[in-house]
Design a protein that fits this description.
The structure holds 2 protein chains of 2 kinds.
Chain A lengths: L2 E3 L4 E5 L4 E3 L2 E3 L5 E7 L5 E7 L5 E3 L5 E5 L4 E6 L8 E8 L7 E2 L3 E6 L1
Chain B lengths: L3 E4 L2 E4 L4 E8 L5 E7 L6 E7 L2 E5 L6 E7 L2 E7 L7 E8 L9 E2 L3 E5 L1
Parallel strand pairs in B: 2-11
Antiparallel strand pairs in B: 1-3, 3-8, 4-5, 4-9, 5-6, 7-8, 9-10, 9-11
The chains are: A mainly beta, B mainly beta.
Chain lengths: ~110, ~110
C-alpha cells in the first residue's frame, strides 16, 4: 500500500525566507503526487500535482515541487515566505491511477514577521 | 453559490442522537467523497460515490451511513456515535475519478460527540 511521510508537524519560517516542506512516499508503481493546503476553518485546496512529464511542477501562490524518483521524494518549496502562507500543508500520493489519495499527516507552517 | 458547500459547520451530538451531514456541489462533478480529518492523523477516505453509485467503502463502521440521491448531493447519516468519532468531516467532489481530476473540498463539518 502507498504511504506518505511528512516530518515535523510544525514548521516555523521567517517572512521572506525559503519555505521547504519535505515529503517522501512509498510506492511500488509510478506515483501520482499532490500537495494540498488548508487555511484555518477551510477545506483543502490543491496547490500542485505531478502525474507525468516534467518533474519540476509549479503551482499556485509561488509554490513548486520536484519529483525525484531515486529519492522517492516530492518536496515543496517557495523562495520567499509571505504571512499569507501560514496554513497546513498536506502531501498525498495515488498509485492506483485514480484520485484515491493517501495523505501525510501534514505540516503546520507558521510565518514569523 | 459556487464550489462545495457543507452544512452544518459545527455539530454537537450525544451518543444516542441521530443527525445528518449535508454536502452539495455546484461544479457539475460526477464523483463525491467523504473524508474524516482527526487531529494528528492523516486524512482518511471513508466513502466514494461515482455517478450516484457507491464505489468505495473504506471499512467504515455501520454507524456512518452515506446517501447520494444525485450527483450534486451527498449526505452522511450518523447514529449511536462514539466520542472517538469527533473530527472534522470533509466532503469533496471531482469531475471524474482519474488522477488528472483534482478533488475540490468543502469547508467541513466539525463534529463533537459527547
Amino acid at each position: 500500500a502507498q504511504s506518505v511521510t511528512q516530518l515535523g508537524s510544525h514548521v516555523s519560517v521567517s517572512e521572506g525566507a525559503l519555505v521547504l516542506l519535505r515529503c517522501n512516499y512509498s510506492s511500488s508503481v509510478p506515483p501520482y503526487l499532490f500537495w494540498y493546503v488548508q487555511y484555518p476553518n477551510q477545506g483543502l485546496q490543491l496547490l500542485l500535482k505531478y502525474t507525468t512529464g516534467a518533474t519540476l511542477v509549479k503551482g499556485i501562490n509561488g509554490f513548486e515541487a520536484e519529483f525525484k524518483k531515486s529519492e522517492t521524494s516530492f518536496h515543496l518549496t517557495k523562495p520567499s515566505a509571505h504571512m499569507s502562507d501560514a496554513a497546513e500543508y498536506f502531501c498525498a500520493v495515488s498509485t492506483r491511477g485514480n484520485n484515491r489519495l493517501a495523505f501525510g499527516k501534514g505540516n503546520q507552517v507558521v510565518v514569523i514577521p | 453559490e459556487t464550489g462545495v458547500t457543507q452544512t452544518p459547520r459545527h455539530l454537537v451530538m450525544g451518543m444516542t442522537n441521530k443527525k445528518s451531514l449535508k454536502c452539495e456541489q455546484h461544479l457539475g462533478h460526477n464523483a463525491m467523497y467523504w473524508y474524516k480529518q482527526s487531529a494528528k492523523k492523516p486524512l482518511e477516505l471513508m466513502f466514494v460515490y461515482n455517478f450516484k453509485e457507491q464505489t468505495e467503502n473504506n471499512s467504515v463502521p455501520s454507524r456512518f451511513s452515506p446517501e447520494c440521491p444525485n450527483s450534486s448531493h451527498l449526505f452522511l447519516h450518523l447514529h449511536t456515535l462514539q466520542p472517538e468519532d469527533s473530527a472534522l468531516y470533509l466532503c469533496a467532489s471531482s469531475q471524474e475519478t482519474g488522477p488528472n481530476s483534482p478533488l475540490h473540498f468543502g469547508n467541513g463539518t466539525r463534529l463533537t460527540v459527547t
